[in-house]
Structures are given as C-alpha cells and as structure tokens.
Specification:
Chain B: One of its GO terms (molecular function) is metal ion binding. The complex is a heterodimer of chains A (271) and B (334). Chain A is α/β, with parallel strands linked by helices and 271 residues long. Chain A is 19% helix and 30% strand. In chain A, the strands form three sheets. Chain A has a seven-stranded mixed sheet, sandwiched between helices. In chain A, strands 4-3-6-1-2-5 form a six-stranded antiparallel sheet. Chain A is globular, with a radius of gyration of 18 Å. With 334 residues, chain B is an alpha/beta fold. Chain B folds into two domains: 203 residues, no CATH class; 120 residues, no CATH class. Chain B contains eleven helices and eleven strands. Classes of the chains: A alpha/beta (271), B alpha/beta (334).
C-alpha cells in the first residue's frame, strides 16, 4: 500500500464565515475533513498562497470544523479574502491533545487572552461535553476592549452552566462595560482551586502567557500541570523541518500544548 | 556479510554494467580532486576512491534543494527512478543515517525520501588518505563504512575488495558474479592494514578528542562563548547548505494553472526569518543565538534524540567557510 503523503492537504469547503471582532473571524468548514482531539492543531492551505497552523475552535464532537483566526500575516490575509463556498485545504491533525483523562474529578482552571481563547473554546466545549466528569471549570478571560471579546453570542449560554465559573476583564472599557478592568492577571488574585492538583490551561499573546505563567507558579500550581499553548514558526507540522523546535522539544509534535515543566529551561519560551 | 575481489581493470566494466540499469553517479578525479559526477553514455567510467569525500554532498540525491512534495487539490506521487551512487565515504553515510532517522524512523515517514532511498544502490569506499579537514573520528566514525551502504569497496594493491553490507548489495554481486572471485584471509589482512593507517592519519590531524559531556557544554555555553564563536562569520550560510546532516526545510506553495504545488526547499537556521512567527516576533532575532543553534542542534539535541551527533566530521563547513571557522576549534574551547 502506498504511504500517505503527510504534506498533502485534504480539499474542504468554507460553509460559513462569522466575523467576531474587527480583525478576528471564525471560518466554519463543511463536515469534518479531519478528526481531532482538543489541543491538536491543523494546517490550513489557502490555494496558491500557502499554509499556516491553527488550532480548531470547535468541539471535537461537532459536525463541522471551525477555526477562529486573527488577521496577522500573509496567509491569514489571503484567508480573509476567501468567501463562503470557496475551497481551502486542511492537513492534520498534528500534535498531542490535552490529557483530559488526567483532568477528570478535578477543578480545571482556564486562562485566556484575546484570540487565544479560540483553541480554549475547543477545550471548553470538550469539557462541557462530559461536564459531570470534572469538579468545576473556571474560566478567566481578558481582552483589550469589550469589542475584542470573542464568542460574545455564546457567553450567555455558558454563563447559565452551574459548573462553569466565569470572570472577564478588559484593558480599556466603554460605557456599556460593567465588568472588571485591567490585564488578565488582575482577575487571578483569587484562585479558588486546589493548586496542588488542579490543571491550569493558558493561551493568549506571548506577554500575557509570560505574566500569567509567573502568577500561576507563584500561586503554587504544579509546573507539570500548567499547560501552555505555544506559538512558534511551523512549517511541516510533523517534526521534520526543525522550524518550531523550542529547546529540545518540537512544538508541532510534542505540543502545541506544552507544560511549564517542558519549557521553563528555555531562555525565552514566549515570543 | 561476504567479501569479493575484482581486478583493478574490471571495475570500469562493473560500473558500466550498473549504468545500464539506472542513473549512475560516481566520484571522478578532476584536477587532483574527486568530484561526484553523473555518468553520460559513451564515456568510459573510471571511478576514483583514494581521495577524501567529494565537495558535493549526497543529500541532493534523496532530498533535493527544491522538491515538489504535494499537489492540491489532487495529490499524486512523483515518479522515482533507479540510481546508483558509487564512491561515498563514511562521512557521507552519516548524513544519510541522519536523514534515514528523520525521514524514515520518525513517524510519519516521508514518502518521497523513502521512494528515492528504496530506488538507490549505495556503493561506498574506504577513505585511505584523510586530510586536515577530516574529523570523523571525533564524531564516532571510522574512515571506512560498516553500515548504511549496500556494498563497500577497499582498494588493495592488485584488486578492489568488495564487501556486501546489505541484501541489495548481495543481489548485485550475484548478478555480476562472473566479474568477482572470493576474497581470502590475506586480502582482509591487507585491507585491515590500509584501514589502520587511515585511522592513524586521522588521529594525527585530530589528536585531541572532544571534551567530555560536550552536549552539556554546548547547551550551557554562555553569551560570551557564543559571541566569540561567531566572530569570523560573514553570515553566508554556506556551511549549512554544504552540510550533509543539516535537514531543515521550508514548505512553500505556488500556483500552477488550476493546481497548487507544494515545494520543499532547503532552509537554514542562520536565516533571520527562519524562526520568525506570523505576527513578526522572533525567538532568535540575534545572530549569536542563530549561530549557536547549529551547535545545540548537532551536538546536544540530536544526540538526545538518536544517540549520534548530527555531524559527520567531513569538514565541508570549514573548507567552504570564508571566515575559516573550524567547528572543532569551537568545541575544543568549551
């Protein structure tokens, strides 16, 4: 039998495009061209332009595959030019999923920043799918302004779940904002979980990751239970091209979620 | 594995016969140096094995500087034809060993590499006269192969001694058995003497072994040591592209009619954009860190992954370097 070509993307169709904020959009891909677990990522191909890595924002149990993407570079700009019904390519899934079995019976502490909440949404939906397996889920989310908060339409439904505890903050508020102000670390003063056993999951901009990790370490979370979504330049996605190596680990095959224990020896893990 | 003899004047017949079955590339003497050249019909083949490895490195034959690796939306496997490589040295084989581990052992395997590897017959040769640039003995190799290739050749006084190192090699000898006679104990003694002299010559150039715990020393090198190591570097990146063990690459997509072609090109960790992410941040924005990445990759990380150095001791990086940076000098100073 001929070996599967790991560099070839599977053709897929954009079913729907949902603008989330002025520069963040959710792309819904028809059907489930790849099967993934929360925490794994895929490479999206814009035909004729190139590919870039993204973690799905949808539930692994959903019928369609979703990605919430910020427009930052060449490939994402071309992606934002695509329309509903257009073709793109999907390659993956790559990397290791969150160890959800290890989270069972424990509180789960999630900290997100900006578009970093996209991959966390996939995790959150996977946790909600089996919500009775976990003690309680705490979400701490910070955005620059109320307009930069992603998934606003989903928040009311999530807030109704008794096993979900939410706290939001914005750097700069407006007249409608009634929540907390300041960067996300301001809502980490109180950590209502047993830090000796609870996993903490973090995803957001590099600077936010750095200071949140510091705070979680100070609070006493176990280093091997602080899960960080790492961002590095990726090309192949399969641990061969060497681009995403962070210290001796490959973000694409050993991550993209790595623990603080994995990366704390790296001189500057957050870029 | 078995050993055979072939008369010196018959080697040309042997390789000419091989050339009828596929593309043939071999080490040829040109102006006092050997170069790896393609055989063209109606030109007699006179391979030369006495010199050190050729300046050309062998990764081209399995992992080209520019390769079409996938098509979109419909992928199809590229055609791969049979090739014979004659005259590789053990340092060349270390390069192939590293690629075998990355492309075949580490899953998922690379199908294009596998197809080329399966369709290639490697005939290596002893390296009887190491030169100043050679340091394969420092990275755990001998100046003669005992694995990776299919057949190895040692030039004796009156014969070439062939040793089969794989099933593929045995099949070839069987196919041309009329050209060969079995080797005896005296022939092996003669070979051992040649090999002993080659090892001695290498030791003369490299009397000092690498410091103990070199992986740890490389990992813990301070900023001063990293800066001092790169002070003569002109950032041409030639060392990385000349290196038989460097395997970094980049995938880029190009439109061709209605199709998209995914092209794999060699990349090098010295390039400023190598580790830069979409938003513009760069974990190795300083050249000191990029320069040192080569050392941690070859002498620390690959050793941790595979228990071998991703360095062949071939000296191509030094020979081709405008700043004459010798990797050995840097390692000895740690």
């Amino acid at each position: 039998m001929e070996a599967v070509n790991p560099y070839a993307a599977i053709p897929a169709k954009i079913k729907k495009i949902i603008p989330e904020t002025p520069n963040i959009t959710t792309f819904i891909i028809e059907g489930m061209p790849i099967e993934f677990k929360a925490g794994q990522f895929a490479e999206l191909t814009v035909p004729g332009v190139g590919e870039a890595p993204f973690t799905p924002s949808s539930s692994p149990h959903a019928d369609d595959l979703e990605f919430t993407i910020m427009k930052v570079g060449r490939v994402t700009s071309a992606l934002f030019d695509l329309k509903e019904g257009d073709q793109l390519g999907v390659r993956g899934p790559f990397g290791k999923p969150y160890p959800l079995d290890e989270f069972k019976g424990k509180d789960v502490f999630i900290v997100g920043g900006g578009v970093g909440f996209a991959p966390l949404r996939s995790l959150l939906l996977a946790l909600i799918h089996d919500i009775n397996d976990y003690k309680k889920i705490y979400v701490r989310y910070g955005a620059r302004t109320p307009g930069d908060i992603v998934y606003k339409h989903l928040l009311p439904g999530w807030r109704k779940l008794s096993k979900l505890d939410w706290l939001l903050t914005v750097d700069v508020g407006d007249e409608t904002w009634k929540g907390r102000f300041g960067v996300v670390t301001v809502i980490l003063d109180e950590i209502p979980v047993n830090v000796k056993v609870a996993p903490a999951i973090v995803c957001g901009p590099p600077l936010m990751m750095k200071f949140v990790t510091q705070r979680l370490v100070e609070a006493g979370f176990q280093h091997e239970k602080i899960y960080l979504s790492m961002e590095q330049n990726m090309s192949c996605g399969i641990g061969k091209c060497n681009h995403c190596r962070l210290g001796k680990v490959y973000v694409c095959k050993d991550g993209p979620v790595l623990t603080w224990e994995d990366v704390k020896h790296v001189e500057e893990p957050f870029v | 594995m078995k050993t055979y003899l072939i008369f010196l004047d018959k080697i040309s017949i042997f390789v000419t016969e091989l050339a009828k079955e596929g593309s043939l590339y071999y080490s040829k003497l040109e102006n006092g140096k050997t170069h790896f050249v393609a055989h063209h019909e109606n030109i007699s083949i006179e391979p030369e094995f006495s010199k050190i490895r050729t300046p050309e490195n062998m990764k081209h034959f399995f992992f080209r500087s520019r390769d079409l690796v996938a098509r979109f939306p419909k992928d199809k496997s590229p055609a791969v034809s049979k090739q014979f490589l004659v005259g590789l040295k053990n340092c060349d084989l270390r390069g192939i060993d590293v690629y075998d581990r990355v492309c075949l052992k580490w899953q998922p395997l690379d199908p294009l590499y596998k197809a080329r590897r399966d369709n290639t017959v490697i005939i290596s040769a002893d390296c009887p006269e190491p030169e100043e640039c050679c340091f394969c003995n420092l990275v755990g190799l001998n100046p003669y192969p005992d694995a990776i290739s299919d057949i190895n050749i040692t030039r004796l006084e009156r014969h070439y001694l062939f040793e089969t190192l794989s099933k593929k090699g045995e099949v070839i000898i069987e196919q041309f058995k009329d050209l060969f006679i079995e080797a005896g104990k005296e022939d092996l003694k003669e070979r051992d003497k040649i090999r002993k002299n080659a090892v001695k010559a290498l030791e003369k150039f490299n009397a000092r072994s690498l410091p103990d715990n070199i992986s740890e020393r490389v990992e813990k090198a301070d900023k001063k040591a990293k800066h001092a190591a790169r002070k003569d570097c002109v950032e041409c990146h030639g060392c990385l592209h000349a290196c038989p063990t460097c395997y970094c690459f980049l995938l880029s997509d190009y439109r061709k009619g209605k199709e998209t072609e995914r092209i794999r090109t060699w990349d090098a960790c010295y390039y400023a954009a190598y580790a830069r992410v979409g938003g513009g941040a760069n974990p190795r924005s300083k050249f000191d860190d990029r320069f040192w990445n080569r050392f941690v990759c070859k002498f620390d990380y690959f050793m941790q992954y595979e228990d071998i150095y991703a360095c062949s001791g071939c000296g191509r990086c030094w020979r081709g370097c405008s700043g004459k940076i010798d990797i050995r000098e840097i390692l000895w100073k740690l």
